[in-house]
């Protein structure tokens, strides 16, 4: 009887183990097992539990044209939770024949799982690749990246604007994008204009209605003449293309297709500035400007100071030329100027003003002229040079020593005369005191004396208790890391929490919080902010792959949320996920 019971126990254990193993699924699925040599194959590796150390097969007989794309679905229905994670690859066969895609492996709960090999037959080219219309062909016809140049034939140092727009047809969509290659403007002075939020606009492309977003705005000032080439902007995007299948509500199901789009290179013909009519004092200013020379005062005494300001304001290449210099008589002592810039850059180029402020100190009594100063610039709108000349300014020094006979009022060279010191120079210093006596009080054995004497002894027990508590807290390394991580998450996510319920404000604040967190922890600038670099940096700093994936998915949610309806519950989930992920990253960073 005992032996039968043991056998039954073993049987139940085997059945329980089999059931537990059966709950975990890891399998490979392909879009088709027979395809033409000119078609593409999609293979998905699906699992119903998250795992680690996923290793795909080599795909030796295919070219990898897209992927891996990762998608995760996690939801609860009727009290039952459902989880699905998929790695998708897009393959192009190298030749005809039968080929085997070998096993992929992954670790789930400490166990290694493998997919079954799949045999694919590649036939001759077909007339209609991938069915009626290949998804890649649909994406090719419905996604366009365009570089709009404000002026293809500018003058040297004339501002031009390049605006990069991504056009998407109404039938397709974009779920993800990243900059694969950024233009380098080697022959230009350039400045990017910040874009706050990607607003979806409606417009036309080649006579057809499209939606578009402005991805980049750049202001350029050519520094060379002749044919200058603009390097293209290249994007790696995931395009959502409708299929012939429908969901239960009759809406077309979408398939994701990886695609590389480029704005195409552009060549600008930069014209030199004309030599005819060029002023002798021209120093490279191009634009439309006003010019003035002012002084803080025109009457003062010797050894007092005044400020002379040379200022240019307007629209043009304000950072790319020098202001004219100030010339004054030698009897006026002049210090190096303080240069100031108040410039903003928009689609019209640089606007604002620059100035040099000189401090001048006269040494002798008399009248001293500041000669007129001229400033020349080239106006590309009228294709002509302009010169502005300031008025002469006379500085009247009312009191002070008189220059020697060799130094007249209006000469620019002379001998300085020593200044006679005033006998009453230090008369303002008091030489007598008015001390008053105070009543002497006995401190020894007073209340204050005994208080100060006993206070250190009373503080010793309190100090011991505080010290023990501090040591205990410092010894709790894990607890300290958790507390620090939680404080950091709350610090960066404070603005986002205030904006819960307001979709655009919330996701802008959330994205800004993620930006600032990475900027502080990884020392990267906003210009370097792309998902691939973030993923590499976090992985190098030993952050777990699932935490990195969560962080990247939050960034993608911030991008997509501006174009899709979002509920209050979704925003709260994204906020909680962001707080948890920042906390985990801060604990795991090495």
Automatic annotation (TrEMBL):
Signal peptide positions (record): 1-22
Name of the protein in question: Oxygen tolerance protein BatD
Where on the tree of life does the source sit, at the highest rank?
Bacteria
- Which keywords belong to this entry? Membrane, Signal, Transmembrane, Transmembrane helix
The transmembrane residues are 448-466
Looking up PANTHER family in the UniProt record yields: BATD (PTHR40940:SF2), PROTEIN BATD-RELATED (PTHR40940)
User: Key word Cell cycle present in the record?
Assistant: no
């Amino acid at each position: 009887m005992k032996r039968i019971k043991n056998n039954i126990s073993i049987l139940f254990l085997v059945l329980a183990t089999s059931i537990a193993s059966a709950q975990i699924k890891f399998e490979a699925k392909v879009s088709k097992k027979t395809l033409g040599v000119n078609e593409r194959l999609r293979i998905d590796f699906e699992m119903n539990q998250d795992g680690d150390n996923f290793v795909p097969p080599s795909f030796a007989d295919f070219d990898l044209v897209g992927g891996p794309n990762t998608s995760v679905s996690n939801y609860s229905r009727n009290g039952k939770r459902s989880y699905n994670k998929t790695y998708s690859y897009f393959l192009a066969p190298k030749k005809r024949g039968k080929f085997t895609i070998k096993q992929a492996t992954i670790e789930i709960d400490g166990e290694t799982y493998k997919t079954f090999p799949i045999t694919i037959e590649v036939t001759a080219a077909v007339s209609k690749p991938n069915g009626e219309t290949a998804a890649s062909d649909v994406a090719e016809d419905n996604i366009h990246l365009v570089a709009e140049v404000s002026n293809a034939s500018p003058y040297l140092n004339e501002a031009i604007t390049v605006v990069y727009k991504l056009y998407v047809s109404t039938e397709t969509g974009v779920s993800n994008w990243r900059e694969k290659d950024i233009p380098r403007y080697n022959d230009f002075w350039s400045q990017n204009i910040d874009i706050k939020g990607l607003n979806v606009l409606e417009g036309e492309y080649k006579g057809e209605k499209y939606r578009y977003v402005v991805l980049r705005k750049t202001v350029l000032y050519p520094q060379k003449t002749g044919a200058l080439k603009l390097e293209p902007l290249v994007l790696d995007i995931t395009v959502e293309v409708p299929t012939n299948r429908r969901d239960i509500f009759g809406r077309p199901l979408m398939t994701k297709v990886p695609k590389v789009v480029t704005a195409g290179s552009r060549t600008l013909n930069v014209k030199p500035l004309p030599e005819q009519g060029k002023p002798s004092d021209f120093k490279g200013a191009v634009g439309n400007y006003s010019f003035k020379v002012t002084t803080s005062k025109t009457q003062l005494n010797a050894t007092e100071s005044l400020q002379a300001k040379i200022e240019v304001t307007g629209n043009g290449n304000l950072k790319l030329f020098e202001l004219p210099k100030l010339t004054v008589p030698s009897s006026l002592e002049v210090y190096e100027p303080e240069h100031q810039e108040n410039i903003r850059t928009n689609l019209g180029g640089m606007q604002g003003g620059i100035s040099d402020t000189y401090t001048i100190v006269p040494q002798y009594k008399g009248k001293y002229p500041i000669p007129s100063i001229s400033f020349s610039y080239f106006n590309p709108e009228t294709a002509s040079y302009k010169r502005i000349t300031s008025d002469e300014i006379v500085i009247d020094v009312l009191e002070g020593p008189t220059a020697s006979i060799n130094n007249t009022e209006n000469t620019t060279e002379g001998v300085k005369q020593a200044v006679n010191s005033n006998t009453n120079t230090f008369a303002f210093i008091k030489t007598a005191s008015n001390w008053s006596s105070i009543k002497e009080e006995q401190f020894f054995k007073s209340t204050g004396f005994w208080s100060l004497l006993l206070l250190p002894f009373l503080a010793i027990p309190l100090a011991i208790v505080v010290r023990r508590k501090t040591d205990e807290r410092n010894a709790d390394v894990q607890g300290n890391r958790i507390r620090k991580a939680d404080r950091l998450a709350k610090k960066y996510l404070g603005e986002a929490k205030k904006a819960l319920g307001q979709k655009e404000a919330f996701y802008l604040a959330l994205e800004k919080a993620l930006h600032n967190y990475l900027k502080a922890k990884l020392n990267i600038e906003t210009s370097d902010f792309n998902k691939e670099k973030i993923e590499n940096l976090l992985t190098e700093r030993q952050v777990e792959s699932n935490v990195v994936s969560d962080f990247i998915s939050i960034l993608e949610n911030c991008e997509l949320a501006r174009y899709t309806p979002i509920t209050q519950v979704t925003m709260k989930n994204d906020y909680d996920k962001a707080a948890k992920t920042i906390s985990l990253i801060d604990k795991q960073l090495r």
